[in-house]
Amino acid sequence: MLAAIFDNPSVMIVLTGALVGTAASLVGTFLVLRGNSMLSDAISHSIVFGIVIVWMLTRQQSGPVQIVGAALTGVFTVFLTELLVSTRRVKNDAAIGLVFPVLFSIGVLLLNIYARNVHIDQHTVLLGEIGFVWLDTVDIAGYPVPQALLSMGAMTLANLAFVILFFKELKLATFDRSLARALGFAPGILSYALLALLSGTAVAAFDSVGAILFIAFVIVPPSAAYLLTDRLWLMLVYGCAISIMSSIAGYWLAVSLNVSIGGMMAVMTGIFLLAAFLAGPRYGMIAQIVRRRSRERANECRTLAVHLYNHEGGPAQDEENVAAALHDHLHWDETRARHVLRQSIDQGLVVRDGDALALTERGRVEARAILEPWRQEAV
Amino acid sequence: MLEFLSDYTIRNVALGAALLGLISGVLGSFAVLRRQSLLGDTLSHAALPGVCLGFIVAGTRDLGYILGGALITGALAALFMLLLTRNSRLKTDAGLGISLSVFFALGVVLLTWIQSTGNAAQGGLDSFLFGQAAAILRSDLWIMGGITAAALAVVAAFWKEFKLVTFDPVFARTLGLPVLVLEIALTVMIALAVVVGLQMVGVVLMAAMVIAPAVAARQWSSRLEVMVLLSALIGMISGMAGAIVSALGRGLATGPLIVLAASAAVGFSLLFAPGRGIVWEMIRRARNRRSLRSQRVLTTLYRLAAHHGDSAYPSEQGMLDTYHGIATVSVMHRLQDRGLVQPVVHAPEPTPHWMLTPDGIAEAERILATLGKREA
Hints:
The structure holds two protein chains of two kinds. Chain A has 17 helices and four strands. In chain A, the strands form two sheets. In chain A, strands 1-2 form a two-stranded antiparallel sheet. By secondary structure, chain A is mostly helical. Chain B has two domains: 254 residues, ABC transporter involved in vitamin B12 uptake, BtuC (Orthogonal Bundle), CATH 1.10.3470.10; 94 residues, Winged helix-like DNA-binding domain superfamily/Winged helix DNA-binding domain (Arc Repressor Mutant, subunit A). Helix content of chain B is 78%, strand content 3%. In chain B, helix 2 packs across helix 10, helix 3 packs across helix 4 and helix 7 packs across helix 10. Chain B is elongated, with a radius of gyration of 31 Å. The chains are: A mainly alpha, B mainly alpha. At the A-B interface, helix 3, helix 5, helix 6, helix 10 and helix 12 of A face helix 3, helix 5, helix 10 and helix 12 of B.
């Protein structure tokens, strides 16, 4: 049974993709909420520098040393960025955009000079090759387990443990940084720890999806989750769920179209985001439009009630309080007038007697509530 | 050297790099001032699917189609970002990151799709990722030059409007300027700069070319006119420097070298630009600190003398050190050079002592008077 799973490349690939997505969106959630998602862009580029340096020092292309090296590189990147900002001569966004290209450039040049024969070529840097993860395996209890799956699994566990252990602290530091500082929770250290984990995850995911596609896994699923819920833990769960679904759907599509698997997985996260953006229950575009429409309708019903109330018992009642007046005096077109009238009658605000329109008692209360709001009446 | 510069490829590369520096320097100034530095990063990554689409449509590596495609997807990415941030609760940073990564992923998918169809002409497409300056042809230069000229012409024609939108969009709106149109124009033109830089530095490093020359130039001037000109100049020089070093060295990629040259310009400007330079500020601070310290020591001497009712009261060096918590020898020697104090011997003690000169008394009284005024 287990052997069948480990011998099946498809399962391995999908599993690796799902782990990349889960690990990334666990940390990414906090980045998105804090409004510095672009740090993931900076970090994922500059770990190239870290990878080359660690490789030159230890000749190891992956494994724990690389992950620690990457964590240091990530923290170094953010430290440099903050140093630039603290000179008060460069704005935050420009500082991010200045630091990582330098580190990335140095990394690429070092690759050019020293590392012509390693497999970290420029292509891997950008795209990774998740399709080959099952080629590089280690034996564990007689099963061939892919190296990438091991390191991604370790990073996922580390991120999960961090988020669970420090859930309260992270929540506080994310939503009320000053309070966290005042209570002595050291939000700065917490956020550096978060970024170190992000960098470690980036280097573990490097072989599979490369530096740039990784950004998609960090930012997009949490953003989609953010459009679906207001609860932090639900946002984490949704983010992971979206990552896993993207991995499965992306793999299936990529294989049937014969294109990059990692790329397709990242595209799928975008598709899920688009779906959440359009059809999310509360913040989705469609929900917003429906809500706006229904508010407009309700307003129109109230307008009608006020109109009828104004002319009730007045000299122009026969002329104003008739269906045709909606068109002539309120300048509503035929369909709009009919809709409003039907809704008002359905809601019991208005009754119709042939052509004449009359307010019900409820309609009168509604109209008075608008015209004379100081008069509190029980509806 | 002249012979070297007359080399056909190198001349092309240097010219291309200069064009890139020119356009990204000018347009980057506006982006940096409008706090949209990372827009360049998003637009350049989003150019990748456009490169692939252009290739698919043209069927060959035709630069016109490829750059056209890059421009279109870059603009689409910017639009997508605006749509996301305006209509949902996602903030700008998330919008930028989403556009960047999803468009880039789309590009990767298209790239591998082209590779799987086995079109023999696709070999050069990879070069747009990291840039491959040596592959630039004379005909490519004409296209890049045309784009640069067009962008510069637009900037020159709408200079006043762009300036106003950059510094005070609210005021611009009250004047009845079409602010949204102008902002879109600036964004699209950054996409133009990106397009020019694709072949030179590639999609990954293009962000730096938009930001670095502008940030460097900003340190030297607070006037937009000067800043834009300087930024263009810095962009051109670092572009050509990177290109030439790359041509001299063996197998060093052009893009990273150009970016490093531009970043070096930023580092130099941050440190040494007159007025704003960090080094000058540090010197200024050290000088202030020193003058404050000598003022404090001088007034201490004065107060000691006043307390003892003896204007020639000799104060002991060690006591002064203890009083101020620092070694004051150097301060005393500086004061002595200015003729404000003089060393005295206070037998039988062998340690150095100091007393105020008449000038020193006058100076200390002047300091105390201004202090008193401030305290009052």
